[in-house]
Amino acid sequence: MIRNLSDEQLVELAVGENPEAFGVIVTRWERKIFALCYGMLNREDEARDAAQETFIAAYKNLAKFRGDAKVSSWLHRIAVNQCLTTKRKNKSRSENYLDDESNEQQRVFIAPAHLSPARKTEQNERLLLIRQAVKALPVDLRQVVIMKEFEEMTFQEISESLELPLSTIKSRLYTALKQLRLKLEKSPIEVI
Q1: What are the pLDDT digits (tens) for 117-145?
Q2: Domains (range + CATH), the chain
Q3: Which residues 6+ apart lie within 8 Å of 173 measured at CB?
């Protein structure tokens, strides 16, 4: 069955003009790619577009996939590039969506229903502070935090995705977490 094949085998089949094989890759990775895009762009509509563009670019470039890295790393790299392109376009149009927090709590961080309203509110405030602190990080630090802490990628996978040395990835994560800690310590709400 085609769904049991590895990502690399699916790419080979897709290059051999089996569209179902690429569909399996999309199904496997669409949620993770969307989550990465959302973490970088902070807007659901832009993240959805970036994720879609990621898979379109991947499909168009299937024949160029060399197999030097895992398919997942390749897709993450395409997604990061797509998000950076989206950010550049937005910046050139002078549109800054980082401060758009309408319905932010409902979109991103919803406390479990069994918590009291006071606990829900407190948890939402904490999560909002964390999200704002992550958004305030420079893009190169933010993408590493998102990939490591939210996408749960390994250092090696991040290194392959971003085409950066392992030591650079570790250094960026250390720097990002240190900056986050400093920002959150200044918060009037106890975050941790």
Answers
A1: 666 676 777 777 888 888 888 888 888 88
A2: 1-99 (1.10.1740.10)
A3: 144, 145, 148, 155
